[in-house]
Fold this protein.
Amino acid sequence: MKEFLYTDLRKKPELKNLAANWFSLKWNVPVESYLECMDAYLDKETEYGWYLCLDGEKIVGGLGVVENDFHNRKDLAPNVCAVYVEKEYRNQGIAGNLLNIVVEDMHSKGISPLYLLTNHTNFYERYGWQFLCMVQGDNDTYLSRMYIYRYI
């Protein structure tokens, strides 16, 4: 089985621009939005971080933690966001490892519970997340699923 490096941006700040561009391409969110959040994390203005899975120097998976992931339930924070694994790297446990890493890291900083907005079903439950409620995304006419992770 292939060895991947899991890291957060504070351990590899030189990847900031690459990571911001990578997330921007995956989620069609402006690079500047990612850079702003990443700078706040790197400058220790927040403990809400950015986590990457690397295959050599290539980003193959990642996720972040932000105050609100573009939804109307501002009371449900912080949010795990931008969970993505490159198609050719899926089904190798990368997303699950990233989710477990972020849960442990946030818990070590006294941050719990965590929330996650998605349209997926039967994926996040595998990693201890529980369906909480339906919420409306900003600019959406439909409802999406909100999950919660309570560290036990």
Observations:
- Helices lie at 16-27, 31-42, 94-108.
- Strands lie at 5-8, 50-55, 58-66, 79-85, 114-118, 130-136, 143-149.
